[in-house]
Amino acid sequence: MMNPKHNLLNDDEPFKNLKIDDWAILNDIDQRSLCPVCKKSRKYFCYTCYVPVNELRGRIPNVKVLPIKIDIIKHCREIDGKSTAAHVALLAPDDVNVYIYPCIPDYDQSERELPISRAVFIDSTWNQSRGIYKDQRLRALPCVVLESRVSQFWRHQKNSPRWYLATVEAVHQLLVELHAATTKDEKYQGQYDNLLFLFHFMYSKIHDLYEHEDLQAYKRPLK
User: Fold this and answer.
1) Less Cβ around it within 10 Å: N or C end of the chain?
2) pLDDT of 16-73, one tens digit each?
3) Over the stretch 105-134, which tens digit does the pLDDT of each residue have?
4) How many domains would you assign to the chain?
5) In this protein, which residues make up the domain named DTW (predicted)?
6) Is residue 51 domain-resident?
């Protein structure tokens, strides 16, 4: 299977070689319904409770047994409906937790050692992320640098190159790289690609409405 990093450099068919389930079922949802938890009106899923609407319960992917736990620290001003952190929490509920800043867990010192057991992501605009990262509770954690990967996120942010990833893209990229680093004899078989299930669907919906080259997000520089 092609490395997703290289596959997503292709703007023509960026998801072509990824193992993402067919999301045609989502096209059958033509009206909003109540979240089974908070009872607020939602379409497809609740982006605050991280559960699907009743009509989709048991019919969307559940990405089980991630190799590490994922914590997402979400900026309090990040718009829930525009954040892709909800995608990760919804599709891998057993291994993902979302916290609203300034709520940050107390991380065990042993979790910083190799092999890592947990990764922490900041979910915000790039300008907002700097403020969260200055928090000493996070600055004390070691950082990793992901390989460059061109983002397919349709949400435009000024002064950011296209390799600034959406949260769900960054989580997916880390898991793919972690697999390559820790299981050198086992080729990646797309087991984490369904984390992009909702991302792929929404990308397609956006591109049904707009031409790719007309969207500002895809005019960002590649450097």
Assistant:
1) C
2) 999 999 999 999 999 999 999 999 999 999 999 999 999 999 999 999 989 999 999 9
3) 998 776 677 788 999 999 998 888 989 999
4) 1
5) 42-211
6) no
Residue 35 lies in a domain: no
Is residue 209 a part of any domain in this protein?
yes
Q: Which two tokens stand for residue 124?
A: 């915000």
pTM attached to this predicted model: 0.92
Q: Which residue in the block uniquely carries the two structure tokens 């290289």?
A: 6
- For residue 141, give both structure tokens: 């954690």
**Is residue 170, in this structure, part of any structural domain at all?**
yes
86 is in which domain, residue-wise?
61-214
